[in-house]
Amino acid sequence: MQIETKYDIGDEVYGIFLDREFASVPVECDTCDSTGKVELKENKFTCPDCQGKSTQKVARKEWKILTWERRIYKIEVRKDGAEFQIYYLLTNGYLMCVSNLFKTKKEARAACKIRNAQIAKETNDG
Prior knowledge:
This protein is α+β, with helices and mostly antiparallel strands. It has one domain. It is built from one helix and eight strands, in the order ββββββββα. A three-stranded antiparallel beta sheet has the order 4-1-8. The longest helix is centred in the last third of the chain and has 21 residues, at 105-125.
């Protein structure tokens, strides 16, 4: 069986990855003005609407380009049912599928832009 690969060992490639980070964002609450506290007769209490949470943690996702050494070190072929999947091990230890590797930085940047636009669309639609 002959399996053709897009890249060869030693090729320099530009990999992209989905970076996830958590950030605290303010919770909008009209009852406490987003402070988490309400005042009643000079006493402060936890807001009954937002339960005192003036911020919440949200996940932010963004596709980015790998910035360190990116040469193909090893090629792996794995069988997934009737299909064969090709994975590339980079010299930095990352194991990546072909859909996340590109020959030029320009191609990688364009792929990030498209995927990030899709994330923004899903975030706004959902």
